[in-house]
Amino acid sequence: xxxxxxxxxxxxxxxxxxxxxxxxxxxxxxxxxxxxxxxxxxxxxxxxxxxxxxxxxxxxxxxxxxxxxxxxxxxxxxxxxxxxxxxxxxxxxxxxxxxxxxxxxxxxxxxxxxxxxxxxxxxxxxxxxxxxxxxxxxxxxxxxxxxxxxxxxxxxxxxxxxxxxxxxxxxxxxxxxxxxxxxxxxxxxxxxxxxxxxxxxxxxxxxxxxxxxxxxxxxxxxxxxxxxxxxxxxxxxxxxxxxxxxxxxxxxxxxxxxxxxxxxxxxxxxxxxxxxxxxxxxxxxxxxxxxxxxxxxxxxxxxxxxxxxxxxxxxxxxxxxxxxxxxxxxxxxxxxxxxxxxxxxxxxxxxxxxxxxxxxxxxxxxxxxxxxxxxxxxxxxxxxxxxxxxxxxxxxxxxxxxxxxxxxxxxxxxxx
Length: 416
Fold this sequence. Notes:
Blueprint: H1 14-28, H2 34-49, E1 51-60, E2 63-71, H3 72-75, H4 81-85, E3 89-91, H5 97-104, E4 108-110, H6 127-132, E5 139-145, E6 151-161, E7 167-168, H7 172-209, H8 215-235, H9 240-255, H10 266-269, H11 277-284, H12 286-294, H13 300-311, H14 347-362, H15 373-382, H16 390-398, H17 400-409
Antiparallel strand pairs: 1-2, 1-6, 2-3, 4-5, 5-6, 6-7
Helix pairs in contact: 1-7, 2-7, 2-9, 8-9, 8-14, 8-16, 8-17, 9-13, 12-13, 13-14, 14-15
């Protein structure tokens, strides 16, 4: 099963490898969001091993779910494709490489997954390669073990490449790095999963109160926001690591945008028809109630969650709410001043506004049918410069194929 060949690369001492692992470990343990964490883990492991792609599967209900995937060749020109593969499930048994990795609890390594030894109990599923036109060759499949020595997932890194671009087997240094790093990565993953679960429980309380705040909506909000931000920031030449750190907080904070609705009465939240002006004034208070939940700003995440909760209904032309009040902690009404406008609205609020309005219009709700896609997109274009920051709308349209892929991945149950 295990075939080796020396890969052309500079040699590193065990001491240097350990120093690199410690540096990366410090970075990953500071990441709160599970998706940003998995992206960072795969990126760092692939960088060290000079690998073309990789995936992380998580063990869930006696199945393996593909939680994150990267591939320089397949996704470089079409990033939206990545969302089509995420959340696919495979059985947790020894017939697959990932399943065998979990069951045996050890690293499995292959020079060429198409040419496994006759006695190998697992096999490589070629369906992905056939559908994409890709050729998976070398692979290292690593169990991710918790501090209790329980396998919580599998990391698969594929197609190590020599300096000239030829696909080669993984070498001893690759295996050493990955074996050292995997357990620490698993600990970070468990912590991030716990954070996500806590956030989703908080949002479930909002969903119990407000039927419009569905699990699909908040997940789409988080994914839309980080993708729009990445496009917006890359066009401005922001460093990749800075973008990644910002996205880590942005995904969770944008999911919490409407958490202040827990303080709004059921009579207003669950009213099936249009709100009366005085009722709408009360509804506007959810922005301030959300801000108050995080106003202590004990962390960067708290500060961003407070910012988004407060500003996601502000408008580029200044006609939004709650406006330019000085003391959000003590105010008892909104609309006492003009709204914030243009760049006085933080970029987080400008992005959340685009993501939230788009999802509200294109989604079916108990009180309305979904708008047709053409109508939604026309509204987004026409509202650039009035409701929305024009540059954020530009970023939205530049990645619209990704936006659609996210919408499909987090579709509500019973919808197409």
